[in-house]
Amino acid sequence: MNDNIYNDVYIERFSAWSPGITGFDEWNEWAAGTRKIQSGNVSPELAFTESIFRRRLSQISKMTIQVVYDLLPVNEDTKMIFLSLRGELSKQYAINKMVVEDKALMPAAFSLSVFNAPIALASMAHGLKGGYCAIYPAKDSFASGFAAAQAALLQGANDQLILVYADEAAPPEYAQLLPDNPSPFAFGILLRREAKSGSVPFSSLQNKKNSPEDFLKQLLTMKELYVSS
Questions:
Q1: CB distance 112 to 88 below 8 Å
Q2: What residue ranges in the chain does DSSP mark as E strands?
Q3: What is the CATH number of the domain that holds 150?
Q4: For residue 137, what are the domain limits?
Q5: Does the predicted TM-score (pTM) go above 0.85?
Q6: How many helices (H) and strands (E) does the chain have?
Q7: 143 vs 26, higher pLDDT
Q8: Structural contact between residues 46 and 202, judged by C-beta atoms closer than 8 angstroms
């Protein structure tokens, strides 16, 4: 992919969340290979939401809500774009198990299992009204998802947007079937069409890769843009 197409997109700030990693220094250790992301279903607490809202949420939805929260405040009309390689995997597994074992499907179980559930819930949790879209990156390529975000900015309807990537821990029954089982983590980026004081052009990233892990490692070179709760 030609790097020149990114010249007009600017990164204003970014956030990240994963089990067992707290703060920029620990993320840097992960990027250097000296710290690992914990496996399992540990999720952010989301203490800023009502308990009735968060009690049925999956790990991927909670992580998505958290990284968007860390990027706030933003204009309530800020658009969001969500990328994931697996989506609501644990919810999908629960549904498949229900169909196989019970020969039935509860509507309540289905409602939170769809691919766009995490970003829809983030929009609700933070009162954002700018709309959202959910994208499955072509050929597992995070770069193709970023191109979609860039297009949304450059067509002129929005001067900023939030780009979120998230994948959760796979259920044990699925993990053995995934040759490249992703670690549970999420990150969010506040992007702008035009430069502001302190923002960084995307073109300044070097050796951009197609995987979310490599992309986040590149973001971590921009310590001054990192934000956390």
A1: yes
A2: 10-17, 79-83, 132-135, 160-167, 185-192, 200-201
A3: 3.40.47.10
A4: 3-225
A5: yes
A6: 9, 6
A7: 26
A8: no
